[in-house]
Amino acid sequence: MKSLVSDEQLMLDYGQRGNVAAFDQLYQRYRKPLFGFIRQKMTEAACNEVFQEVWESIISQASTYRVPGGEAQTTAHFRGFLYTIARRRIADYWRSQGKQSNSDEQGLDELAADSNPEKEHQQGVDKQVILRCVELLPSKQQDVFMLKQSGLAVAEMSQVLDASFDAIKSRIRVAYQQLRECWEKHHG
Q: S-S: 159 plus which of 38, 80, 90, 104, CB 3.0-4.6 Å?
């Protein structure tokens, strides 16, 4: 039976021993969710640039990477480390563009296409409502919503956003409440 190696162990193997296969495993685990997270904040062209910068940063910091708390840590730590770097690179990008964030280019994966034109139209309308509702969220709620959609646990979001566990839970609750109210207002 094949056991999964923790993200931290893979990062340590890469950083301390130069194990490129360990880095490749990390990259394969996180490339799609990380790209999706970054894409939610910017255009695809900018996303590609920031995505590359995040992995370059991971590579450059690999030799100094340490697991706080020793062996007791779970995979949450590396994931928090990765998404913290991503958030910082996104902020750096928007600062360089002279903007706080980009609310015009919110990305969601395409809704499944169906051959029914009526259904396709409704899905397009639904997608626009969702995008608009996410845009209307205050930045703190928008951040937790996007991190949650990227698969981070509350403890990981707490680490990435440098906020307490309870504050993150509250932000998630408020975000979903506001999204629900927005959806009902604009959809039905």
A: 80
